[in-house]
Every structure is written in C-alpha cells, then in structure tokens.
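Issue 218. Parser rejects a valid record. Input:
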Amino acid sequence: MISLPIVSGASRSLIRPNSFSLLRTTATNVTPLFTGKASDDFVKRIPGLLCPSLHFQRRFDKIIAKEVPSTIVYEDDKVLAFRDINPQAPVHVVVIPKIRDGLTQLGKAEARHTVILGHLLHAAKLVAEKEGIVDGFRVVINNGPTACQSVYHLHLHILGGRQMKWPPG
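Output the parser choked on:
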C-alpha cells in the first residue's frame, strides 16, 4: 500500500495501486466518500469532490498563469521551474512543461513529446547551474501511483545541495 498526501494538511489516505479514494475535506476531518478502481478521467469528471492530483494539476496551471505565488527559478517559452513547497533537499525545484498536451506522466509519452522531454532535461541542467549544484544533482520523475505521483501534469524534481543516497527509494 502507498500513502498519498491529501490537500488538507497532515491527513493522509491509504490506497492500493490502481485504485483511488475520493475524499471530502473540512477544516477538521477527511471523510472517505468512495474507494474503487477507475480511470483518472472518471475521477476528474466528478464535480465538487477533492482529488489531490486534480487539485495540484490545477495548481500547476495557476502557477504557469501566475495566478498563485511561486518562487520561479527558471522560465522560457516552453517550461517553468519553481521551488517545491515541500522540499526534500536543500535545493528542490520542480520543472514543468507549460503546455500539458496529454503528457500527464512519463509512461504516457508519445513520439510527439520527444522535443519537450528533451527540453525539460536541458532546463533541469540550466536550473542546476543556476542553483550551483551542477556537479551533483538528481532528476526524479514519479510515474503513476506506485511511484507516488500525486500530480498528473508531468514534472521533474531537481534535487541537490546534499549528498544523495542509493538506492533512492
């Protein structure tokens, strides 16, 4: 079983791989509404329910549109890099494509995505240079629920500023 963060603070929901939980959150608790198997599209079509990945997917869109504050580290016409709000290393930057184009996770990449995938990696190198960690950094892409992907807008985590350990997970 894996644990996915729920938006309402420290609450967590335990789910099985390839399943999901729909939760109603209030200021004081998290109430399970439904747990089952379905596609991401099914979950996204249910109005009025809080789905963590949908919440953060919209949050990424709002960061791109500069509707919510973020600490931008790098930006060009194709990608945006900003500091993670829950850093796992002294340097923790998230790099996202500005246009999702169906690229919700690496496992769904198609040949048409090769240019943006290469651009994301090049942007990761530029971020590492800018942050002074180019001699030692890690690029992480979580793919799917068993890898703890919680945002279904492809993104790279750039981690550095400390000694990394192996194995990573």
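Fixed in the parser; the record now loads. The chain has three helices and nine strands.
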